[in-house]
Records
---
Amino acid sequence: MKPIRLDGWQALRCQPWLLALAVWLPPLLTLMFIALFASGTPKSLPVGVVDLDHSTESRAYLRHLDASPALALYHPYPSAYEGSAALQRGDILALVIVPPEFGRELRLSISPESVAFYNSQYLLAGKFIASALTQANFSFSAKAGVALRLGRGYSLPDAIAAAAPVRPQITALYNAGMSYALFLVTSIMPALWQILIVVATVLTLSWRLEQASLPAGFAARSRALWQLMAPLSLILWLQGLIMLGMFSVFLGWRPEGNILWLVAGMALMVMAVQSMATLILSLVANKVRALSLCAAYLAPAFAFMGMTFPRGDMNMLARWWGNLMPSTHYMELQVAVADHGASLQTLALPLAALLVFLVPLALAIPALPQQMAIDPAEEVPS
Amino acid sequence: MKRAPTPPQALWQAFQAELANIFTDRAVLLVIVGGLLFYAVLYPLPYQKSVPGEQAIAVIDHDRTHLARKLIRMADATPQIRVAARPDSMLEAEALLANNAVHGLLVIPSNFERDVYRGRPTSLSFAGDASYFLIYGNVVEGLLTAATTLSVETQIVASLMKGESAAQIPGQVMPVRLISKPAFNPTSGYVNYIVPAVFVLILHQTLLIAAGSVTIKDRARRFLGRPAAPLHLALPLRVMTFVLIYLLFAMLYFGFFFQLYGIPHQASPWALLLFSLLFFTTTCLFALWLGALLPRPELVTVIVLVTSLPIVFTAGFAWPAENLPAWLDYLTLLIPAKPGIQGFLALNQLGAPLASLGREVAILVGLCLLYGGGLIYLMRTQARRRARNAAYDHPAPSSAWGAAVDE
């Protein structure tokens, strides 16, 4: 029998699943998420309307709301009853009710009140609709206010000034277009990349241990593992860089600070996750259970990174659990480098945290089982 | 020679074999019992506070007047923000933003008070850290509330000084009012938003791993020629056993844990039970189909791990399904989790009657037929292949083929 080389390249050649996870799935998933959020911000969200007034003013008001790119008011309902049933089914994400006498009260300047119920179960869409409605209402109000004051004999500049004495100018720092695509893809993909790293590492190590036993001494063992893992680490690190490249090509991602810190951080991230994967496999010595533990450990990583719900508002336990995941520190680094262009002092902390994850590797290498047998009762020969 | 068992005996033996497949497999127990309990505690953990609290902002006050100080006090008083720093320059403010000490900035221009009282339009500059959208939203909401309140107050004072009739002032200050009310999730809390959908996903994903890997190991044992119950008994019993186990977990999740986390829910127990029954049957058939397709048990876990985040963002609760590209929207409907999440949310969170869920029910029934049919097809072809292999294996061991292998 010809002895086969037991390095990482061979592992990739022998296992089509590993090849998929490490080579072609990562860019494919990035492209899928870019397509998923292709609209940039939520657009034309379905809003139902119950117009109880049917006046020129109410129609003008609804047309004005409809002009907001976030909203699509194409669902008229005869009464609140039908409207709320549609809201419950999820056919519409908000319901605007224009009261009777809307037009008359507007002309008499006694401030009619319309009501909008928005679906806050679908919190992102609901809040987005609520703020689009508030803004559209505000600008309609300003226009109507100018018209009312002109009718009362104000001059045009006075009327405009009186209608909006304090004008807020809002700037979104670090993401000027408030693109959800930029915000979400750049935080989801690192979490998914982490999952691909952990799975690829467990599969590679298991493959190696099923092929032949590991040498006993620490040095010999480390050398064998280095030959096995180095090619894979390199590929997974390159996948990280390709991911950043795709952010920049498709999402207009422009790092504020020095990208080299992020490139270094990505190398540390790959090694940190691989170190934890080795530790987990050394603890259970079984690939199925190791993967289950990896799932328990890293599947919820996105929620704990604090990009959606802020880490500052999490309790101690959640922050502590988040700190145990490399992705949390990597995201901190990515935001600091790419968005904030922060000083080296700020970058040092997440970089050091990623380094700490390499410590368990020293314990995991000697603790790895020498060999793992393939149980014929667990594999279907092809 | 043993007599063939009577049909009830065969059924009972097959059922015992199925139970043994599940309850003697440590990897499966780890997922069903350990996993489901652990995830129910872990996933809601980040959102215990549910609504993000006050975010720190910095204020640069170029005016230093009474009105400017009033605006700062008003901003500080909103529940969304607190004024944490008063830097002197933009450079200093940017440094505070960069190291996360503050997430927002309010700049009050010089001559702010004078312009407001003279009726000249003045601009207030707000900036929020849009690296974190929820924080940004809160900062902007808080600053807008403070600025609008101040604006309304000054308009009222100005109108009264001009001698306008008090009855018409509301119409001048705000000609049209819009009251926005959250429906279904009254606190707009994050727990109520994430947990009901993610719980459905957890049930779905663990069921895929458990039922999928049980099926793969069962196939492997059949391939080795170990005794096993006939498939026409084993597969329906497996589906039934897993559906029953998962109905118990559904009660734990939608009953006990919803109560524990204070999640509002509306469906009647019967409607929830019926929909759960359909959802788990579909998911279980999907799991068995995957189990018939894949060669090794760990591959189900790999698929589950890689698909979880894509499911979250295509299921319609985190990102509006209306905004998905059509091909992605339709493609992801093939995963039972998506119609499942949409159905459970409509039923239990939005309070829609079961009868109005025609779309979700139709999709799940369609997937049942698809994966059920696919499962039967795969199992039949594999049984035929096994029978062929058995015919090869049985000839006398001294055959030329057997000898060639020994060399």
---
Amino acid sequence: MIHHLLDALAMLGMSYVIGFLFYGFYRQFNARVQRRWGPSIWQNFFDNMKFLFKSETVSHGAMFFFGPMIIMAGAITTVLFVPFLKDSIWLQGFSQSGNLILIIYLLVVGPLGNALAVGSSGNPYGVMGVTRGLTRLMGLEVPFFLGLALVMLQHQSASVHVIMAAQDGIANWNLFTNPIAFIVMLLPFIASQNASPFDVVGAPVEVYAGPRVEFGGRLLGILMTQNMMMTVAKLVLIVDLFLGGATTVPILLVKAFALFLLTAMISLAFPRLKTEQTVDFFWKIPLALGVIGVIATVWLPWS
Amino acid sequence: MNLIVKLLFLALSLTPAMTLLTWDGGVAWPLFGGITLLFDLNPVPGFFLLLLALGAPLVALPMLRGPRDEPAYALYALLLLGMQLLLLAGDFIGFFVGWEIMTWSSYLLLLRSPRTNLEGAQSYILFNLASAFLLLAGMLVFYSFTGDFRIHAVTGLNTLQQLSLLTLFGLAFLIKVGALPLHLWVPRSYDQAPDVFSAFLSALMSKMGIYALILLLTLFPEGLAGLFGQFLKGPAAGYVLAWIGVITSIVATFKAISQEDMKRLLAYSSIAQVGYIVTAIGVGSSLAIGGALFHSLVHTLVKLLLFIAIAGIVLQTGHRRFIDLGQLIGRMPISFFGVLIGIIGLAGMPPLPGFASKYLIYVSLLEAHWLLLLAAMILSSTAAFVYCYKLIYGPFLGHANSPEARVATEAPWQYLVPQIVLMGLLVALGIFPGWAIEILIDPVLTALGMTPIGAPAWGQLATAYGGYDGVVLMSVFATVFVLVTAIFFLLRGRMRQAGSPYDLSYAGEVPTAETPLHYGAGLGRELRRIPLVGWILSHSTQGFYAGLVRQTQAAAGLLSGLYSGNPQTWILLAVLILAATLTVQTLTGA
């Protein structure tokens, strides 16, 4: 019991710290690419603390308040169901009681909680943002799931532990044994991280109001916190699935950072797409690649 | 008097439960010509009888509200009788009689709605009669092959015979479940039926089609695999059926998103959900059939809950369209929770059991190596989030858009009691998916001659691909939710309620009561800009049938080119053929 509690707290703390550091780095990186100075690497932490300690928060009814609580609970549950390390009793959370398909579904709890809260606020722009978000989700889930399904089929298991354990040694990483699955799910993964070029849902400048429009003060702080933690959970998940997982925390950090850097570079290189363009793109390029992957690895006789 | 009639009716609605609990031993009733009617309770129909036993009283309770309506009560009783006959029947005659009683009594109940128009009623009865006649033809063909009306495994048929039976029965039952393009009657009748009765149509009557489809598996012991062999690791014939199911669910999901009426949305969503079940039956492995049964159970509970909650809204406000409702969350909180739990189950979100059943179906598709089907199913089940959100946003959130929605009160208790029961059942099943597997589904699988799925504990769902623990999941989520909320309140700072509903961040303007702020009906309209969705939504099944008619007429036009128009030619031809036949017969000495 004590072990579970300490383990859970360690996972949450770790995902929070990595979260704001990675986001801080992203803002620096972004600024340098655009030849600005950019904020300090701690800036996201400062922003988050500022929001969390605001003295006044406006609420639009009970559901508006409980929405962020659902999102936060969903994010923490997700973090606790992703194993951070392999061959270790630490940083496991409750991952033995879950599996990959469950985690993919838990990732969606957040957007749905947000949708309820925004709907309750009565702001039509917020609801439009939610619709954009759900539409993008519909686009990205298909190739994302197909990519992960290829991995599940390769290892005959939906358990993250089994998939991680099968990748001993760099040559057995799924990144190398099943590269097509990695390519298929990479771009949808970037979209699920709410990163450019698929970030029109809550884009800060171009679109006046996204799903977060009515939130302020501590509720916005909660949303920001869960966003950073979710980002880390997803990164760790992909590290577990494709980069062989990690046995120690430093290795995990290096692998997660490498993956983050890759997605950040892709994000910075491309301009933002409209929602329908995003969906159409996902249903054409990554999905077509996925179909080719299925035909090549499942249908054809040599597989 | 009034009370007595109503209590009697309620007691009648408990008959499926009584049958389920007290049935012992089979009944054989000799008819003319050596044909015997057999009735017995086997595990497979027993599962569906359980659904009926659960659903019948929950639908009957809200039907009791308002003035006494004896004809409706009588027809409902008749309907229950027909469905029990159908489920208990051990031979096709009893099955057919039950099927017909069900069709006609539900048709007459449908006609009692003031909203039913000629088109809706006609399409309901025409499609269902077509289904019944296909069933009749199927059972006669079955009799001619086997010389027996009993429902039993048939062996020794050649491919052509199997195929003819499968086509006749399959079409009959696919009409009943509303697979594309045979679904035309579903949205019309679910939409026009009396509000509470729609729950029965969607939740229970569509399951009779599922039962019949699963019954087909008992007719052919080697199942779909015996017909055209294997495709990857599943049956090739099932692959076609699975695609029918998935395409049905994709198209119906996008149609559901574009609806402006709550009941029509739910009708299309029913088609989509039943599509998943058809897909699972197509996979045909024990895990898939388990998933199909589990999904039937979940869909029954969810659709009862949603249709009854929506019926309550329609009763209290008189409106059915999203654009006329809004902001009922404060005035109808229990209905709000009902719809919330319902859509979480419908969307298949963990920890509710919708996830467990979808999980079984996904894993069965993985095991069969049918990944493209899996991707297509993910498409429709993710797109379902949009209509689920529309269903809760339109009536309950946003701004009240009609005078009735501004003053509505909570639905009467007859509507709330079933909702609370169903919410409880859904949450319990979500925590204990293994219980449903062990107690409800494994006996059916054993009776079908398949390996039971099994569960290590009541809270756990286990498959060869791994599983999850519903108890851990639910307790982690609930604990975290409570802790987060508590910590939030412990932190410094206070919450302030917004001054008015128009206190919004609205593009630098201040909205007023005249500003159109409710986005209910428009939600999902933007999806048309996506080429594939736009294409699906710009085509209709009626267009498909019109195209079919045009093609048939064109083919007939080609054939009529052969006809010369001069009767003498035809008479000459007839005489010549007669002469030729006679000559041949004479020559061969026959």
